């Protein structure tokens, strides 16, 4: 039996005017700034007006470590949101915006799938409302002003060897990882080495997603460290006098984007920090606003729970004063088989033993999420090749870990298929058993925070870091940054720093290659193993098959 592609389904969507979607949440048309007929930004005035409301229930959707078999975290997030609306709850989905780099690389799109999608799918996966372009422009403005400051006399006495502010572009371009700038003689400035990160790794992106309002945004931008002087004291963005103009560029980008699911339920799509090299959650302003106007808010954290959920708990919840009422861990029978050693080409054949062999990866995530004091539900994202015996094997394994697993068929059936999952989530969330707490206290030393995550979440034996890194962390503590959380930049494919080690490995080490202080965002980035803050394109990028057809429709997004 053949199934329609995601983009074919999205094209057939019966979308409602965005004003009607806003009305479902009590947002009047005067507080919507439309981008066409099917998307709009929500005004800061409306956001301010609902701050006295009681919060709804917060549901986090996370997953096992991603595999080529596919897990469907965003699909499940959207499907669960539709399922909750189906059973009479006023539910809002909150997800991240898609980066152009992965869309043209391996991913091909990030708006859900099947009959659990957010639309307009093509817009969301391309330029959308221009938020990422605004972030790139604000970041680039600061880059230009730093080099301009040095050119015109260097009043701040910046050591050109210690400019730590890199450039960004929203594309996977490995050729830009390390570059030389200001070549060509006196007229072009002082030559120095720098490099590019992808826009979603920019501290500006992290700040936009953690800021409460424009004033908080400007203060955080001003607190970013961009360079060091010859006496090794930090130079802040505010010393370059760039934060005001940057805030102007980000004024509209700070407002959350409202769109809809295929079933015409509301969805906020806002912000998009990567989960392996940033904190991997949608914006605080979108999540907190949705909580004030919804019974339930379903949000996601990027990649597996060892990255996205850990950062959601330790960074986003800590910074925004949030606490999830229930966590959904997405798994698939196919991914369990792949973790059990089955090749991708053979995933269609029943193999109960391989499912059982691969389940420890899921078990590790269940244990980790429970350690934060929140109840857990496992969503088995259904594939048509799954057999009853394989599904039962997963359910039995999860039951042995003191949790429930629910089969969800939202990809195929939309909210009808996710209704059992929605009912289970409501049961867990309304039982009131959540007792959320972060993994470590604010006053724990920075290196000990790194060790805590490595040992308790990754199950590593040790963290490997040379004296230079340890001294840098101690220096930041002496400067008053010791109370910040840490943001681990690590491969998403494994609990280790080796992307090829599947399952639930133990007895490994976590090598720390570099640490970066994101003083404005309010965390320390810990770069582990071979992770890159500027990804590259694969040998056959998705961009090769993305094009306009004869009818002027986009093809190749999936």
UniProtKB/TrEMBL annotation:
Q: Which PROSITE patterns match?
A: FTHFS_1 (PS00721), FTHFS_2 (PS00722)
- InterPro entries linked: Formate_THF_ligase, Formate_THF_ligase_CS, P-loop_NTPase
EC number annotated for this UniProt entry: 6.3.4.3
GO molecular function per UniProt = ATP binding; formate-tetrahydrofolate ligase activity
Top class in the EC scheme: ligase
Which Pfam families does this entry report, sorted A to Z? FTHFS
Q: What is this protein called?
A: Formate--tetrahydrofolate ligase
The opening ranks of the lineage are:
Bacteria, Pseudomonadati, Pseudomonadota, Alphaproteobacteria, Rhodobacterales
């Amino acid at each position: 039996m053949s199934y329609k592609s995601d983009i074919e389904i999205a094209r057939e969507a019966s979308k409602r005017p965005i004003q009607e979607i806003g009305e479902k949440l009590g947002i009047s048309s005067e507080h919507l700034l439309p981008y066409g007929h099917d998307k709009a930004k929500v005004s800061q005035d409306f956001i301010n007006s609902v701050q006295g409301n009681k919060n709804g229930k917060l549901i986090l959707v996370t997953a096992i470590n991603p595999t080529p078999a596919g897990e469907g975290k965003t699909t499940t997030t959207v499907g669960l949101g539709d399922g909750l609306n189906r059973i009479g709850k006023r539910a809002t989905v909150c997800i991240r915006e898609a980066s152009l780099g992965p869309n043209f690389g391996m991913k091909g799109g990030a708006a859900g799938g099947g009959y659990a999608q957010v639309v307009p799918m093509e817009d969301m996966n391309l330029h959308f409302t221009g938020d990422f372009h605004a972030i790139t422009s604000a970041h680039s403005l600061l880059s230009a002003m730093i080099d301009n400051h040095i050119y015109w006399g260097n009043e701040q006495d910046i050591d050109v060897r210690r400019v730590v502010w890199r450039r960004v572009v929203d594309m996977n371009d490995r050729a830009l990882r390390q570059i030389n700038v200001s070549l060509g003689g006196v007229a072009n400035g002082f030559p120095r080495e720098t490099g590019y990160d992808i826009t979603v790794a920019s501290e500006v992106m992290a700040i936009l997603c953690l800021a409460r309002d424009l004033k908080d945004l400007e203060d955080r931008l001003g607190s970013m460290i961009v360079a060091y002087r010859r006496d090794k004291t930090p130079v802040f963005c505010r010393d370059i006098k760039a934060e005001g103009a940057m805030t102007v560029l980000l004024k509209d980008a700070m407002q959350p984007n409202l769109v809809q699911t295929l079933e015409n339920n509301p969805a906020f799509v806002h912000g998009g920090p990567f989960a392996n090299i940033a904190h991997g959650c949608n914006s605080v302003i979108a999540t907190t606003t949705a909580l004030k106007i919804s019974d339930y808010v379903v949000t996601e954290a990027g990649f597996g729970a060892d990255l996205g959920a850990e950062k959601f708990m330790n960074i986003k919840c800590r910074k925004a004063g949030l606490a999830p009422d229930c966590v959904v861990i997405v798994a698939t029978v196919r991914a369990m088989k792949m973790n059990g050693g089955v090749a991708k080409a053979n995933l269609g054949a029943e193999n109960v033993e391989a499912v059982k062999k691969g389940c420890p990866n899921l078990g590790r995530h269940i244990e980790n999420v429970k350690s934060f004091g929140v109840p857990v539900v496992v969503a088995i994202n259904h594939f048509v090749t799954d057999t009853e015996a394989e599904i039962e094997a997963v359910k039995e394994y999860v039951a042995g870990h003191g949790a429930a697993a629910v089969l969800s068929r939202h990809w195929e059936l939309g909210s009808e298929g996710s209704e059992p999952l929605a009912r289970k989530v409501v049961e867990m969330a309304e039982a009131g058993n959540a007792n959320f707490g972060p993994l470590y206290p604010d006053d724990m030393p920075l290196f000990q925070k790194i060790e805590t995550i490595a040992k308790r979440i990754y199950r590593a034996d040790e963290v490997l870091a040379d004296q230079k890194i340890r001294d840098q962390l101690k220096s930041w503590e002496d400067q008053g940054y010791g109370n910040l959380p840490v943001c681990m930049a690590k491969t998403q494919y494994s609990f280790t720093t080796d992307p090829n080690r599947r399952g639930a490995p133990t007895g490994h080490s976590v090598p720390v290659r570099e640490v970066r202080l994101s003083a404005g965002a309010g965390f320390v980035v810990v770069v582990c193993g071979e992770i890159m803050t500027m990804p590259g394109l694969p040998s056959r990028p998705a961009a090769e098959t993305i094009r306009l057809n004869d009818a002027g429709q986009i093809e190749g997004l999936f």
